[in-house]
């Protein structure tokens, strides 16, 4: 290559590096992956080594890059900032209202008030006002701990530095959404993928003067901690927010009738493009704050609210071929590989076909022209086939009879709940050696909700697997990471980052650890239920190991846990009967620091008590009673043993067998009014 061309190539790479450094260090908005960044640096160094005439002030040998300024201070939210569960149809909303009414023991025809608000697609923030003065502003962070971005938030004009008037609580966390107007986004659309990213990037600038350059807005809609609540409903609160000087949405409403809610949904969706900021649905909140308090939370989201997402975006594309993917539980999922198509701003090239029955029902074939839809975070789906566009030679798709990975004969299991065969085809993995299943287990293990090892994404796992660096989860912790220097795309920075994130992941809570094992039927909720019951990894492991010996005590113990049923127990039995799984867990126990599950530390009369409920109650639903008891430190069981402390009996349809069993085992029996005395 002639000198000028080499120079041009070199300076082109140097310019790119400069741009990436700026995005990473200055704008807190990396525009390429660590891998690509490292690769670029290596390419520059290689060129310099080969052609001695290449020199630049910005060479990675001279330039340490931009020094990353210290991160924002981390501060725990007084009340966690949770997320919302999603609804996509009127039926979902009907279910939501039904569940709420059941929980509150209200009649189905009770006209419960719902506050409806547009769901603004921005970044949430929490503002702490003490005596009306803005003292602290936090980002959501992981919901538990946020970042102190007070200075940046103070640059936003629609955030009052002082609350207007004099009628406000002494101490309140006002929560809402930071967003950017569509018209303001057009000026900076070259820098960010969408308005939401722009708001996020701008909010987290190290220098608040930079934040000020992008015109951010704030819309208030909820609260966290409040000392002396001056409002009884969400709609009252929204009015107060306005009086205090906040912007609140003009599209907020209160309805009691689902028909009005749906009408409002259709109206707002049709106005969507006219609204000056991005709205991706409607949030429905139970208006009465006392009801909200009673309803409480499940996992990460409140029982008293739901987000009704705007309808999905559809597009037409062609199925190039149908691939079978194998999941960590052995499920064979057919996936349509599509001619890439833009669906609402996202390029889609895969759509799930769910299972064999779905393919037969819709008669989906390779080469078909299909309509696909993408709804929120849900994987795109094929909704219909255009038969008219089908070619003459098209053939029906034959679902495989053998696992494409390990060649075992696939099965459809009999479901003892539905008394039918499952729709899902599975690789039974009789020797626990199906490579695809093992690989998927690894991906699950490192995923965000499990060990959360940043830098060890799906592609990296595939790569390490192919290089035979890892097979079981514990291999990750024994991996000689420096070996990666030999591989393409791995530079100093990405190696250090990976080492750090692997080390960080070693400290893990018991529920996350149980979830990370990837046991079928043991998702987040069940992992939490098991962690709450066993409290330590030792207890959990010892009991589960003994499920396969013929001692009923261990099985009974599991049966007694509220929320754990036959499918979970069968699955635990199967998992713990496999020697390799036992080796994996033993190794992980040695390598990791698995924290005991923390029960409520506050001592209450119910702390650590085992309680069972039977029958229906006069004033509260059984779900609410269970929820209240759990909040007071009790464990709910679903069968009686000598260890059970109380059997709480409702006046309607209690099970006589349970009452007799309690009497026989000397378990204390309580009725609703005794119970109310205790919890009050
Ligand atoms: S209320 C307990 N109201 O949606 C959660 N959230 O997926 C209370 N959001 O993190 C949130 N508009 O950032 C609420 N009117 C609204 C909202 C809203 C947008 C966002 C918020 C939250 C996310 C939940």
Task: Please specify the SSE layout and strand pairing.
Layout lengths: L2 H24 L7 H17 L23 E3 L9 E2 L2 H15 L9 E7 L2 E8 L2 E7 L5 E3 L2 H5 L16 E10 L1 H7 L6 H9 L4 H6 L2 E12 L6 H10 L9 E3 L2 H14 L7 E8 L2 H7 L1 E2 L2 E2 L2 E5 L3 E14 L4 E13 L2 E7 L3 H7 L6 E6 L6 E5 L28 E2 L4 E2 L3 E2 L8 H12 L11 H9 L8 H4 L13 H14 L1 E3 H7 L7 H11 L2 H9 L6 H8 L6 H11 L2 H13 L1 E3 L14 E5 L7 H10 L3 E2 L9 E4 L6 H9 L3 E4 H8 L1
Parallel strand pairs: 2-13, 22-23, 24-25, 24-26, 26-27
Antiparallel strand pairs: 1-6, 3-9, 3-10, 4-5, 4-7, 7-8, 10-13, 11-12, 14-15, 14-17, 15-16, 15-21, 17-18, 19-20
Bound molecules: 2-(butylsulfanyl)adenosine.
The site of 2-(butylsulfanyl)adenosine has 14 residues, from β3, β8 and β13.
Would you write up a description of this structure?
With 680 residues, the chain is an alpha+beta fold. The protein has six domains: 3-63, Helix Hairpins, CATH 1.10.287.610; 86-309, D-amino Acid Aminotransferase, Chain A, domain 1 (2-Layer Sandwich); 314-430, Nucleic acid-binding proteins (OB fold (Dihydrolipoamide Acetyltransferase, E2P)), CATH 2.40.50; 431-505, 5' to 3' exonuclease, C-terminal subdomain (DNA polymerase, domain 1), CATH 1.10.150.20; 509-595, Orthogonal Bundle (DNA polymerase, domain 1); 610-679, BRCT domain (Rossmann fold). It is 36% helix and 21% strand. A hairpin with a 2-residue loop joins β11 and β12 (301-302). The radius of gyration is 28 Å and the shape is globular. Residues 64-70 have low confidence and may be disordered. The structure holds 2-(butylsulfanyl)adenosine. The site of 2-(butylsulfanyl)adenosine has 14 residues, from β3, β8 and β13. 2-(butylsulfanyl)adenosine (IVH) is lined by residues 82-84, 117, 119-120, 124, 177, 221-222, 283, 302, 305, 307.
């Amino acid at each position: 290559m002639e000198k000028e061309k080499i120079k041009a190539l070199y300076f082109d790479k140097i310019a790119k590096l400069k741009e990436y450094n700026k995005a990473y260090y200055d704008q807190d908005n990396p525009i390429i992956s660590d891998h690509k960044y490292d690769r670029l640096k290596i390419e520059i160094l290689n060129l310099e080594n080969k052609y001695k005439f290449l020199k630049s002030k910005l060479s990675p040998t001279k330039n340490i890059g931009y020094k990353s300024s210290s991160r924002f201070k981390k501060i725990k939210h007084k009340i966690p900032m949770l997320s919302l569960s999603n609804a996509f149809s009127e039926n979902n909303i009907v279910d939501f209202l039904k569940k709420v009414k059941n929980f509150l023991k209200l009649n189905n025809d009770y006209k419960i008030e719902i506050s409806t608000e547009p769901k603004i697609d921005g970044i949430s923030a929490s503002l702490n006002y003490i005596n009306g003065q803005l003292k602290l502003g936090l980002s959501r962070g992981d919901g538990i701990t946020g970042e102190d971005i007070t200075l940046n938030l103070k640059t936003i004009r629609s955030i009052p530095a002082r609350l207007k008037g004099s009628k406000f609580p002494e101490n309140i966390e006002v929560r809402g959404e930071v967003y950017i107007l569509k018209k303001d986004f057009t000026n900076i659309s070259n820098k960010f993928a969408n308005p939401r990213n722009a708001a996020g990037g701008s909010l987290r600038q190290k220098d608040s003067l930079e934040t000020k350059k992008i015109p951010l807005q704030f819309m208030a809609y909820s609260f966290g901690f409040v000392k002396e609540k001056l409002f009884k409903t969400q709609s009252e609160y929204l009015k107060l927010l306005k009086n205090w000087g906040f912007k609140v949405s003009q599209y907020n409403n209160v309805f009691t009738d689902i028909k009005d809610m749906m009408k409002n949904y259709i109206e707002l969706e049709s106005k969507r493009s006219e609204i000056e900021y991005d709205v991706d649905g409607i949030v429905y909140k139970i208006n009465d704050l006392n009801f909200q308090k009673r309803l409480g939370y499940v996992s990460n989201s409140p029982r008293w609210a739901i987000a009704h997402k705007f309808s999905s975006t559809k597009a037409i594309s062609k199925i190039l071929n149908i691939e079978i993917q194998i999941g960590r539980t052995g499920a064979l999922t057919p996936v349509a590989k599509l001619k890439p198509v833009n669906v609402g701003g996202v390029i889609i090239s895969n759509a799930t076909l769910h299972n064999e029955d779905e393919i037969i029902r819709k008669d989906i074939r390779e080469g078909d022209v299909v309509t696909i839809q993408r709804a929120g975070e849900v994987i795109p789906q094929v909704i219909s086939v255009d038969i008219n566009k089908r070619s003459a030679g098209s053939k029906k798709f034959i679902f495989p009879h053998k696992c494409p990975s390990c060649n075992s004969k696939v099965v459809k299991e009999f479901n003892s709940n539905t008394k039918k065969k499952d729709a899902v085809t599975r690789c039974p993995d009789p020797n626990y050696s199906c490579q695809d299943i093992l690989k998927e287990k690894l991906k699950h293990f490192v995923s965000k909700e499990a060990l959360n090892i940043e830098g060890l994404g799906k592609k990296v796992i595939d790569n390490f697997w192919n290089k035979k660096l890892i097979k079981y989860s514990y291999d990750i912790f024994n991996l000689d990471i420096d070996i990666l220097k030999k591989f393409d795309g791995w530079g100093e920075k990405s190696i250090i980052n990976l080492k750090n994130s692997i080390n960080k992941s070693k400290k893990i809570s018991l529920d996350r650890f149980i979830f990370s094992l990837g046991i079928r039927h043991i998702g987040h909720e069940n992992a939490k239920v098991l962690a709450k019951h066993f409290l330590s990894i030792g207890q959990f492991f010892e009991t589960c190991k003994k499920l396969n010996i013929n001692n009923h005590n261990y099985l009974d113990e599991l049966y007694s846990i509220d929320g754990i049923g036959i499918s979970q127990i069968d699955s635990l039995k199967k998992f713990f009967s496999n020697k390799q799984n036992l080796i994996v867990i033993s190794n992980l126990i040695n390598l990791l620091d698995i924290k005991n599950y923390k029960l409520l530390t506050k001592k209450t009369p119910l702390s650590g008590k085992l309680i069972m409920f039977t029958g229906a109650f006069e004033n509260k639903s059984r779900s609410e009673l269970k929820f209240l008891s759990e909040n007071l430190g009790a464990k709910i069981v679903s069968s009686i043993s000598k260890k059970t402390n109380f059997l709480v009996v409702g006046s309607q349809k209690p099970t006589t067998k349970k009452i007799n069993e309690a009497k026989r085992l000397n378990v204390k029996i309580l009725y609703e009014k005794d119970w109310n005395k205790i919890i009050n």
